[in-house]
Design goal:
63% of the residues lie in helices and 0% in strands. It is built from 7 helices and no strands. The chain has helices at residues 8-15, 21-36, 45-55, 60-72, 74-82, 88-94, 97-112.
Amino acid sequence: MPTLPLPLSALCGLADEPTLLPRVRLAIAMIAQEVFAESPDTPGYPLRWNLAKTVLSPTAAQTVQMMVGIVASPPMVAAAAATGTTEAPAMAAAITDDQILEAIRTGWNAVAGVSPTSAQPTLTET
């Protein structure tokens, strides 16, 4: 198992960072809009669509619940590590909107409950 590039305490601080929450909340709603535009043939679409419907206007509580998964996603861990600091406000300020959106896109299936194997295209789809 690979070593984390940051201590868990730094990632916990980032997951609780109040300046990051509103950006993540809006990013969740934006990714939900992307999911609504997907083809119904997208692997895992019913679960992906249901999550989008549920979080289209995410409440603060939903955002807080999703923050741990978002911050723990490989794209967000890499973005946080690249900031060169372990201070949550500084990490949050340095992480770009595109990095937040990519972390949410990457984790959408897991949060929606889509099995990793069901999200893989079959031989007939490739």
